[in-house]
Amino acid sequence: MDTLAQEIFDNEKRLAETLRSYGLALTPAEAQRIRQRLNRPPTLPELFIFDIEWSEHCSYKSSKALLKKYLPTTGSKVIQGPEEDAGILELTEFNGDRYGIVIAHESHNHPSQVLPFEGAATGIGGIVRDVDCMGAQVIGSADPLRFGDPNGKHAERTRAIAQGVIEGIWHYGNALGIPNLGGDVVFDSGYDDNCLVNVVAVGLVKENEIIHSRVPACGVGYDLILVGKPTDYTGLGGASFASGTLDQNADEANKGAVQVPDPFLKNVLLHRKANEAVWRRARELGLEIGMKDLGAGGIACASSEMGASAGFGVEINLDRIHVAFPDIPSQVILCAETQERYLFAVPPEFTPEVLKIYNEDWDLPRICSGAGASRIGTALKEPVMRVLRGGEVVCDLPIDFVVEGIAYNRESRKPVVEFPPASIPRPSDIGEITLRLLGSPNIGSKHPVYHHYDTEIQGNAILRPGEADAGVIAPLDGCSAGMALSVDGNPSYGKISPYWGGATAVAEAMRNVAAVGARPYGLTDCLNYGNPEVPEDFWALEEGIKGISDAARNLYDPKGVPEAIPFVSGNVSLYNRSVTGVSVPPSPIICCVGVLDDYSKAITQGLKRSGNRILLAGDRFAELGGSAYEQILGLPVSREIPIVRYELERGLIYGTVEAIHRGLICAAHDISNGGLLISLAEMILTAHRSGNFGLQIDLGEIKTDLRPDYFLFSESSGFVLEVRDEDVAAVKSLFQEYQVDIHTIGRVTDTRRLSVTWTDRKDICTLPVLVMRDTWENALTGVFI
Amino acid sequence: MIDTIHVALIQFPGSNCESETARAFRQCGCAVTMIRWNQPASALAGYDAYVIGGGFSYEDRVRAGVIAAKEPLMETLAEEAAGGKPILGICNGAQVLIEAGLVPGLHPGQVEMALATNLMKREGRVVRRGHHCHWINLRHESRPGRTPFTRGIDRHRVLPMTISHGEGRFVCRDESVWRTLEQNDQIVWRYCDDDGHLRDDFPINPNGSWGSVAGICNVEGNVLAMMPHPERAFYLRQIPSAWGTAWGEQRRAAGGDRAALESPGPGRLLFRSLAGSLPA
Questions:
Q1: Which of A2, A165, A273, A645 lies 20 to 30 Å (CA to CA) from residue B242?
Q2: Does B55 touch chain A (CB under 8 A)?
């Protein structure tokens, strides 16, 4: 074996230099640990493997302990928790089969900052493979995006990044044929140096057709088959790149760590084409197979994890791997993150058929130069990871050592920052402020973004982005079940309190799903934070995990079993920090999956009929910290942010679900960014235009000590509901069962005006709908074209 | 009783609407066979009707549809077209039919027009670039039954459907072609507003297509190339709930009633037209 020289390990300085010269992120101490455990110096390919396996991205070395300690991951709706490439929640039983929703949630933050188009596109590519490789049809995606201030100091770069990211998403997602179900876009100067590009994908699978990301139990002697694009140099060190602080001066060098997308090849692999042909044949032949997507760490990670999770070893022969160029170094073949690849474990007698399906039936070599399927190795009983090249052993590692990763106990320290109490001058014109909010990038219509995404493909859309608080599809032909999906996370709250930033993200994602009438079934999280080696950043991560965990444990149905809403998949993205020492705002982004027994009951947020009553569920509190109102006035951030009152929130969420299920609600919208008045405006602006609707809001029934602006712009949680006159009493008594105060605050008119009278019956705001619409629809003009 | 109609659905690398397109035909009683691009050209012969669905065949290299149009399979399709078989191209399928010279077919086999990149303009200003996905209104322009997919659809009837494309602008080098097409009743669909009026500006004309044209047939009428997706407007439930026109009203009224939501949407007319109109 061609190991590194022992002398390198005898000299700390030389070791550090050696590691640096190969572009490795391993510390000298970590390299020493490898040497000691192996009882010999590692080979260069071995060192590369550990560099990836021990990266933050792959090993969760800073977050693992916290996640294990706090996050709830089990429950009655969980078919599979977060142990493989994607989690699985129950959707429904139909014709005797149990169907699952497969879900995965990732980030592609660093790559998108450096190469927005490719970074965002390969983000979708990776997440879609994670879902697909469970044996699922990919039925939707969603993109939570966080960009810098589009009108701030770095406006030009921010806009270029935002446009590139959106273009990458539509180019890739539309070509693959995956409908967009939602997402959100938030602008904040805290993302000027580090954008966040998260992506969620969902799939549909029959429970008995799930394919696991491991060698099957009967799989000793199974062939390992690599499928897809020829391995090249792209994406080398991607996982390590994503596990370090982003240095703008190294942008050019970092570009090599970004993968290159090929949606065209991917389309032939997964869109009910080649992969499905393999699954179908395996089922017909009664064969158990394993399949895993190649993501971070390429062949090295995929093969070792597939073997180790079955308790087996693997032997890989690099000479058999189809590569784009001759003479690629072994460590590159093993660790490059070339896109559009999968690894299969199949019984040897099935191998010729698998190769034929890809190489002949679906013609991969002619679709993409050098692409195809090759038998590259074998599953071994002996628990080792052995790699051969030209008859030589280049890697010989105990497989458990490869995958066990490492863990660090990071130091956690609460930062010394004091936020002042709110001090907001009494506004002279609430209407004018409302217009400014409607025209702000975070509240304005996101249609310029949504209409780039294909929302209609596959033909299952019920509610699309912009129609309601969550997207809804009916994914199973002939079955009444509907799936709702929403993503959320407000960075303004996380800056003030990372705990409540986490808890509110969970609560809001659940409220959004509830607002269409779906029952929350499960959650995913992508935890985007700064540098875990900075104690204050680590504290924020810790608080965020506590916040999302507490919310998930507490927001159960008060009329049902008090079990947590489980997290079935997720991702931790750290080092979202620039070299200048600026970390992104603590940004836990939460996705909630909800289920409707009958999709026909799903409702939108747009007003439906003149004369209907408007009800407000959820008290208003003096919680303007981090609010859009405070921001639009340019005031310093104040300390009173919206918190989650768990008991009240339970009633709000499940009361709304039940009211919609009983057909009592015509339209529902949750109160979030901008507060009550903005929610009301949005209900007008998303109504069907032939209605010419307006709202007459009369707060005479409300008892409150708050000032009108506090009442109207506070972002305390709640719902606005449109209810037929004859159903108002039933809705009120239903919410009483859930111990939620609910008040009639107005009615739908056909006047095309939003007018509000205060508790003293004095007019405080009147706005023509036409003016609101013009402002709202053009909020992003210039940012996106 | 009419025998089952056998439809061949041609699949290119990059096609991505096969499932819902096949579903639409099957729901109307047709049998559907997928024919992969690399199957022998003879595999395509002898079906009752043909469809090329949406997608990004050959990743829209050069120009959408160009490369697929040169596949050997397309020669068989041209023979079937000449024999009068119904052929429908939706979105990328329309691009392929245009690039193969099957539509408009004034001089069969010659490429007479193209689907260029969207030009989304309002009041003389480009307001948007790139891919555009949205619901639009289509006005039926030709006489009912001009194509086998448009029987029973009155002239000037307005139907909502979706578009989702980056290259959907019908253009001709020779403007006189448009007059010929109008005279020949070959313009089948145009984009319009809720009331059926044409307007050149985005979003009523969503891609800058000449004369708001959205779909064209060949001279004989058996081959139809259209950018909007009828298979995505197959059920009432697929229409957005805030949509205008009587279709929007119907969609909202059906809320809470699954049977009503699964009743026919506007796009189903095309599939029914085919299913009910072929001789045994």
A1: A165
A2: yes
